[in-house]
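Reviewer comment 2.1 asked that we show a complete input and output for one of the modelled complexes. We chose the C2E case, as it is the one discussed in the main text.
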Amino acid sequence: MRTTIQRFVAIILFILFAGLYSLFSHYFFLQREETSSIILDTMNDDLSELSYILSKTVTSHTNIRSTRAMLDRVVSNNHFIDAIMIVRGDDVLLSNNPQYKTVPPRHEFYISEDESAYNVLKRGIGLEGVVRYYVSDELYLLDLIFIFDQDEIDMRLTQDQTYFMVSFGVIPLLLIAIVAYLFRNYISRPLEKLRQFAYYQSVAPSAFNLKELEAIRSSMLQTFNRLEAEKNELYRMARTDELSGLANRNALNEYLNRLIAESLRNRNEFAIMFLDLDNFKLINDALGHHIGDELLQEIAVAIKEIVRSNDFVSRIGGDEFLIIVNHYSSLQELLHVIDRIQTHLSLPRIIQNHPVNVTSSVGIAFYPKDGSDTVSLMQHADIAMYEAKKKGRSQYHFYTEELNEQVLKAVNIDKAMRAALIDEEFELYYQPKVDLQNGAIVGAEALIRWNSKNDGMIFPDEFIPVAEDNGFIVALGRWIFETACKQQAKWKRKGINIPVSVNLATRQLLEKNFAEVLSNIVKETRADPKKIDLEITEYVLFENTDQNLLTIKSLREKGFSVSLDDFGTGYSSLSYLKQFPIDSLKIDKSFLNDFDKENGAAFIETIINLGKTLDIAVVAEGVETEEQIEYLKSSRCHYYQGYYCSRPVPAGKFENLYHSLNLAVLDTSTKRKSSRKKSSSGSIR
Ligand code: C2E
Ligand code: CA
Ligand code: CA
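Response of the prediction step:
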């Protein structure tokens, strides 16, 4: 059974009180009986003494009265005797108290021998003795009666009772009160304080007097202090980035929420800057994580040093930092901060004896202009940062609504694209590659089209960059490649045995075992790898050079040919042409547009000559006019693609085109042959 200490102590005090009470009342009764028997004894003594003296004194019936003085003396000596009577039968011979003139009823004297002295005194009215005397040798008996003085006896006994009440009633109560008081002050209250302290960890109670309680109090204090310290440490750890010592994402969210609330009240604006290192992955991969880690630490310190102490710096991912600049007087000042950070970060540094160069991209969004909540502010700064990245290294970019629209559009396209692949809304169109010398179709470039149920025909410029950005190009590219292979196999069966060119995105080449994957698809579709041409852009050659070189080499080993697309728009370094095994070059459309200007012509001619030297076929793209054709022919370019011959068309149309064009070519060549036959009369080859 559970009880409170108070109740427990109350019970103990009650038991104590009851125990003491019964002990004392026992003692009281004992005491009363003792007093009673002393009183009774004195009276008995007086009775027997008087009866003896009277027996001696009384000698005749008549001299009884002369003993009155004796009776008086006894009564005055013993307060408990009210009267003494000498009685014979029912006659009162002598009474020293005139109140008693008759003999009291005899039975009131006959108190049983077993009765207690107290009962004898309280219930009886007196004592009875005998006086014997002889008159001429004849024995006479008289009764000697002592009447109790009840008032005197009561007084004496009540006196005892009062004394008892005082000593045995009040004192225990007093003691109990003292015990209760001490208990309350020394045990009950301290315990209650301890309980409160344990519950609410409010103010620690001051030291207690009882050693045991004090030990509990101080150990509780110690434990709470330790727990508090541990809690603080956990709290700190939960919001600190361990590596850099900067605030982490949790702390950032908390700070940003607070700052937004504050800024809303005070109508302040602030800037949130998303900083991402440009080539951190390369450094990490090339030099190892320990160097990457140290670099991050150095950068954390550098940023902290540049911004003001009340600006907020946090690391929220591998090489991503978020900086909140709270007070700036002008945009110039903010730009100055960004510039200082970017310049400082891009300084060459030596980490563990390795020279390390790193640059950073920064995206900036403002509260409240660009977002009024944590998520949108961070998202928008992130979007701006991506835009900065697109501009190249060490750039910054401010968030704009247009940027956001682009991103939202990309998100929508992404969703729709994934569904479109399942719903088979994609289709490959084919654009002929034409031999400039005879106008025959010698190849087909597969170009993707999206027949959207909702938006009609969508051109690749709208969705391919999005797919490249988010990686969907890998899945889509596989479908494109497979479809192109199937087409190639089908055409081959139909006698159109021309190579089909497929565009590859940079991202696809990074796929593991890419050559293997393509080779398997070719086998499954029964296409001829020698009739599959892969178009890559210059960027492929520039990024991840070693890996890409290996991939391209193994692709060629599998039998594929490789073309360099959009040549001239990228880095146009001629040196890599020697390194990379390329089968053909495609001159970008923009140069064809400028063929009649000096620059354009010079470029086209250089490429054509280069192709000749390196034994690489050259294809001109975007050829639309007769003049362009004439120019290319005169420059001895091999092939062209362009609206001049045909726009990209569905496979069926392409077949028709192929047949009509190549038949015409066949015709003219046979005509030419027959006319030659005529002129050279009979020489048959
Ligand atoms: P690209 O590989 O340079 O493709 C040539 C683009 O030029 C095609 O646009 C084609 O329709 C267009 N074109 C051809 N001749 C002429 C002409 O005489 N005048 C003009 N003004 N344009 C001409 P398209 O089909 O819209 O493709 C655009 C780009 O989208 C392609 O550029 C390519 O980079 C990408 N793309 C298209 N299909 C695929 C694909 O299946 N996979 C990948 N990865 N990218 C693709
Ligand atoms: Ca192409
Ligand atoms: Ca191209």
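Residues 35 and 156 are 9 Å apart (CA to CA). We note this here for comparison with the apo prediction described in Section 3.2.
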